[in-house]
């Protein structure tokens, strides 16, 4: 019997995302059939299509961020870039992913959760830079309108309890993912910028 609530919640998240992929895919297939039948293009069809694409992008991103990390599994560089690009395609926050090669899925889970944290700290938009050299990761963002002084960031850096809501639960999930993988980040917080570095056991 599972007694680890983090494991149970991640499996539930994986199941929800998995089950939602099929109906979203069916909507897109239905739209393609309508287009093949000769139906005239319209604003309504474009809206449905864009909504389906956006839903699929979010499911792909959240399935890894909130779902089971799948210890030992890898994600290809192509898949990682597609997941990040599609998720942030129409957002004010952009991600500069300067990471080559395939990566272990548990590490990408951590990075996606951290991207969500950084996104929360950039309410007016900005760019998040992600780099990796060997087993050393670095994530940073700098914007004059940044908000990296929230209680959630305080908790991430100091280890104190975090007041959570559905809109900020990724902060605790990121902290838990780092702890589970025995990672202690080095934080550097300035008034309008945030940078963290950490090292993983597997390059």
UniProtKB/TrEMBL annotation:
Which InterPro entries does the entry link to? ChpT_C, HATPase_C_sf
**Any idea where the Histidine phosphotransferase ChpT C-terminal domain is?**
79-178
Native organism taxonomy: Bacteria, Pseudomonadati, Pseudomonadota, Alphaproteobacteria, Rhodobacterales
> Would you tell me the protein name for this molecule?
Histidine phosphotransferase ChpT C-terminal domain-containing protein
Pfam families to which the protein is assigned, alphabetical: HPTransfase (PF10090)
The record's listing under Gene3D superfamilies reads:
1.10.287.130, Histidine kinase-like ATPase, C-terminal domain
């Amino acid at each position: 019997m599972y007694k680890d609530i983090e494991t149970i919640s991640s499996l539930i998240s994986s199941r929800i995302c998995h089950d939602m992929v099929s109906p979203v895919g069916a909507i897109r297939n239905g739209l393609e059939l309508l287009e093949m039948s000769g139906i005239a293009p319209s604003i309504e069809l474009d809206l449905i299509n864009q909504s389906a694409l956006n839903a699929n992008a979010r499911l792909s991103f959240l399935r890894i961020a909130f779902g089971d990390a799948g210890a030992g599994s890898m994600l290809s560089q192509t898949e990682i870039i597609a997941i990040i690009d599609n998720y942030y395609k129409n957002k004010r926050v952009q991600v500069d992913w300067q990471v080559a090669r395939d990566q272990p899925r548990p590490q990408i889970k951590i990075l996606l959760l951290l991207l969500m944290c950084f996104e929360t700290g950039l309410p007016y938009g900005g760019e998040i830079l992600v780099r990796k050299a060997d087993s050393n990761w670095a994530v940073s963002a700098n914007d004059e309108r940044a908000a990296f002084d929230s209680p959630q960031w305080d908790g991430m850096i100091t280890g104190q309890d975090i007041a959570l809501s559905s809109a900020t639960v990724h902060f605790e999930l990121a902290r838990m993912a780092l702890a589970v993988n025995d990672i202690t980040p080095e934080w550097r917080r300035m008034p309008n910028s945030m940078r963290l570095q950490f090292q993983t056991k597997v390059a």
